[in-house]
Amino acid sequence: MRDLCWSAPASRRQAAPDIPGSVLIMANPTSGGYKAEFLDSVRTRLEDLGFRTEIRLTRHAGEIGEVCANPGLGVRTLVVAGGDGSINEALTGFQNNPDPPQLAVIPFGTANVLALELGLPRKPLAIADMIWRQKTKSLRFGLANGHPFVLMASSGFDAEIVHAVPLALKRKFGKLAYVITAFRIGFKRKASHLEISLDGETINGKFAVASNARHYGGPFVICPHGATDPGLYMLVLDKDDPWSSLRYGLALMFGRIHKARGATVRPFSVATIASTSPVAAQVDGDPFGTTPLEIRQTEKTVPVLVP
Ligand SMILES: Nc1ncnc2c1ncn2[C@@H]1O[C@H](COP(=O)(O)OP(=O)(O)OP(=O)(O)O)[C@@H](O)[C@H]1O
């Protein structure tokens, strides 16, 4: 017997959706913090609230994108249970779906910056209740070489770390794995030389990140606008030697990266990041080949459920 049955969420007195509809939870069992019992609690609550709910565990990278691209998906809400990389896959799939469902997120993942950005709940019942309320915001994203990114696309030292961090280290130490990898490669890597063009203006730098979200790498603020506000910003840093990187890292932690010496922050519509020899690139915390990158705004949005 489920006592939770119809024990309405606090907001039950607010406008309730007529047809809750069906929910497909695509869960990445390899994402940081993944818990099967957590998903079961979300599903139980959703079913008590009248949703037909299915949980599918991915068997390989790319599967969330494949499912989200399917025009015959037939669900009203696609829930990604995973981190920012899994969410990125869903967005990418939606680009090829003429009638994509709305997106919801169960925040697993090593960092899950988007969950932070949207202020998503972290408890199973609160997540199910959020899905029940059906309140959406328009999630904006940028395109890097035509590929969507909801948080950031970057090139330089941070992307090299993303490429180099071993999965086992990430699973064992979480976000600390990036710091360990930064120290491991930071003293032997060569400087990156980037030429960044922002709507026609050229800036030279060693590190460039195009940000669609306020936060970067965790609760650290990098950009004045969030992922539901219009506009992309580019942060360019003039140095990437170990000590400058440490200085910039501390400035980021104290929310002062935009004011740090040698940092340039600019809004832009279209940018390119080029280099004479290839420099590592990343989107939303996953490896994304190397330069050159062409980054642009898009007016497209995806409805995402929010509290
Ligand atoms: N079954 C799977 N096996 C291996 N890789 C997978 C599987 N399912 C999804 N992936 C890949 O794992 C990558 C990382 O997953 P995800 O973003 O969910 O977790 P994370 O890396 O721990 O979190 P974050 O991106 O927030 O740091 C995704 O880009 C996705 O392509």
From TrEMBL:
Molecular function as annotated in GO: ATP binding; ATP-dependent diacylglycerol kinase activity
DAGKc domain sequence ranges: 18-148
Recorded coiled-coil stretches: none
Enzyme Commission number: 2.7.1.107
Gene Ontology CC: one annotated term: plasma membrane
SMART domains, sorted: DAGKc (SM00046)
UniProtKB keywords: ATP-binding, Kinase, Nucleotide-binding, Transferase
InterPro entries (alphabetical): ATP-NAD_kinase_N (IPR017438), Diacylglycerol_kinase_cat_dom (IPR001206), Lipid_Phosphate_FormReg (IPR050187), NAD/diacylglycerol_kinase_sf (IPR016064), YegS/DAGK_C (IPR045540)
Span of the signal peptide: none
Pfam families: DAGK_cat (PF00781), YegS_C (PF19279)
EC category name: transferase
Gene3D superfamilies recorded: 2.60.200.40, Probable inorganic polyphosphate/atp-NAD kinase, domain 1
Organism superkingdom: Bacteria
PROSITE patterns registered for this protein in UniProt: DAGK (PS50146)
PANTHER family according to UniProt: LIPID KINASE YEGS, SPHINGOSINE KINASE
Record's protein name: Diacylglycerol kinase
Organism: Roseibium album
Gene: dagK
